[in-house]
TrEMBL record:
Annotated organism of origin: Streptomyces pathocidini
Protein name: Putative 3-methyladenine DNA glycosylase
Family of the protein in this entry: Belongs to the DNA glycosylase MPG family.
Keywords per UniProt: DNA damage, DNA repair, Glycosidase, Hydrolase
Enzyme class: hydrolase
Pfam families with a match to the protein in the record: Pur_DNA_glyco
One function term, GO molecular function aspect: hydrolase activity, acting on glycosyl bonds
The enzyme's E.C. designation: 3.2.2.-
Length: 212
DNA sequence: AGCTCGATTCCCT
DNA sequence: GGGAATCGAGCTA
């Protein structure tokens, strides 16, 4: 399969736990007004629908998470911590609300554009190391929520076959920053040894205001 | 109407 | 390793 073959919607029809590791090594093309930025995915997390306590879908459909409950092959973009965005790719049947969080990758095209967006990055490997950094580097915000990933060249997003990661290089572990019962599942997937993979952090409960 | 805290990053010690 | 920044979804009332 040639490197630059577009991935079609049936790729996303499968269960999210199957799609997530299969995304590693694939190329996400983000077409901006300034030109294309391409990202080789190195780290993702699966969020497994309404029964997954770690998922935004856990409490059912809301205005924010509506895209997750929509058709596969679309983006779910959400705003977090008052200043960042994160990007997911929706998987599985409509209403199953499966989504893969794109956590990190290697910028392979348009690194000048990404640098401009991420001036604090000191190394190429830091441009998209972490979900909010990835979204910033690729100029992704809430206006792209619900975008079709499989609409073809020139759309805001496209996914290319790339070079899927070898199975023996894929590692799994608990999801970063997920609390409670959602933390037990090893649904984080990354390419072992890749310098763009973000460091694992366990969930840290935020301290309450000190009561004097 | 008010409150808590999050699928984080950055900067400081 | 810890705290600040910053806003809004979702819960409690």
């Amino acid at each position: 399969m040639p490197h630059r073959t577009p991935i079609t919607r049936d790729f996303f029809d499968r269960p999210v736990l199957e799609v997530a590791p299969d995304l590693l090594g694939r190329t996400l093309v983000r077409t901006t007004s300034d030109g294309p930025i391409e990202l080789r995915l190195t780290e993702v997390e699966a969020y497994n629908g309404p029964t997954d306590p770690g998922s935004h879908a856990y409490r059912g459909r809301t205005r924010r998470n509506a895209a997750m409950f929509g058709p596969p092959g679309h983006a779910y973009v959400y705003f977090i911590y008052g200043m960042w965005f994160s990007v997911n790719l929706v998987c599985g049947p409509v209403d199953s609300a499966g989504a893969v969080l794109l956590r990190a990758g290697e910028i392979t095209t348009g690194s000048e554009l990404a640098q401009k967006r991420r001036p604090t990055a000191r190394k190429e490997s830091e441009l998209a190391k972490g979900p909010a950094r990835l979204a910033t580097a690729l100029d992704i915000d809430r206006t792209l929520d619900g975008s079709d990933i499989c609409a073809g060249p020139g759309a805001p997003f496209e996914l290319l076959a790339g070079e899927p990661a070898r199975a023996d290089r894929i590692r799994t572990g608990p999801r970063t920053g997920v609390s409670g019962d959602g933390a037990v599942h090893p649904w984080r997937f990354w390419i072992e040894g890749d310098p763009t993979v973000s460091p694992y952090r366990a969930h840290t409960p935020r301290r309450r205001q000190p009561s004097i």
